[in-house]
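4.2 Preliminary Data

To establish feasibility before requesting continued support, the project team ran the inverse folding procedure on a target of 240 residues. The structure was first converted into the token representation described in Section 3, and no sequence information of any kind was made available to the design step. The complete token record follows.
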């Protein structure tokens, strides 16, 4: 409930010897059919609900600012953001809320439709390295990196990111009138995401190899800006 692995052309392989996550992107692995049953999500603990929900939000936002975005992916991404802003805090505190679980199932599927066609960005390129290197939850890594990568992206995608802030604030009173970076951080805090990479046991001395591997990740190709290794390291430091 969040990854959209049930309907996308993205497959992630973890090389346990090199501690690297790699993305395989191929239309031939796209499923013909998926069944999304929110009743199966009722038993998810709050931490997993929060992590997968923030993963879906990351999919929507990265697809929206992607260099491959188009009107169809925009429609899917915007609706996903609408639904997540409203329903994610509810399902974290009310795990058996049937309506909110159903809306989150729609949201993560729509976000999957968006990034399946517009691809992603450096949040995922960097999060894959943290997950592979430290065996950390993917959604938590995304949630921690998302505001910092988008702060970096503001110089190239400010109009789009301002729109994201408006969407989040329009659908959640706690996020109203906040800039997009503050809104993302506040939503993550509301649902209980850790506040820093340091809390997850990430080591600053590993940033260089993490950055090198992130720059090889296919997800970074559609980021609004192509960063240098030093800039990627700077984003890791900002999240630390």
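Position-by-position output of the design step:
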């Amino acid at each position: 409930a969040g990854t959209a692995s049930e309907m996308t052309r993205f497959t992630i392989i973890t090389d346990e010897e090199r501690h690297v996550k790699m993305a395989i992107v191929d239309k031939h692995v796209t499923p013909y059919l998926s069944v999304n049953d929110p009743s199966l999500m009722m038993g998810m603990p709050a931490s997993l609900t929060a992590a997968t929900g923030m993963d879906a939000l990351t999919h929507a936002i990265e697809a929206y600012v992607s260099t491959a975005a188009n009107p169809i992916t925009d429609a899917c991404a915007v609706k996903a953001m609408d639904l997540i802003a409203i329903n994610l805090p509810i399902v974290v505190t009310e795990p058996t809320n049937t309506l909110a679980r159903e809306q989150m199932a729609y949201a993560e599927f729509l976000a999957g439709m968006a990034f399946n066609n517009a691809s992603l960005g450096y949040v995922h390129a960097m999060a894959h390295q943290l997950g592979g290197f430290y065996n950390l939850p993917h959604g938590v890594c995304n949630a921690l990196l998302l505001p910092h990568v988008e702060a970096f992206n503001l110089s190239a995608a400010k109009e789009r990111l301002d729109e994201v802030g408006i969407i989040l604030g329009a659908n959640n009173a706690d996020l109203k009138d906040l800039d997009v970076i503050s809104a993302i951080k506040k939503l993550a805090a509301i649902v209980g995401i850790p506040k820093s990479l340091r809390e997850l046991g990430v080591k600053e001395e590993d940033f260089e190899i993490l950055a090198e591997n992130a720059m090889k990740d296919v997800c970074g190709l559609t980021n609004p800006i192509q960063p240098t290794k030093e800039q990627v390291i700077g984003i890791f430091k900002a999240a630390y």
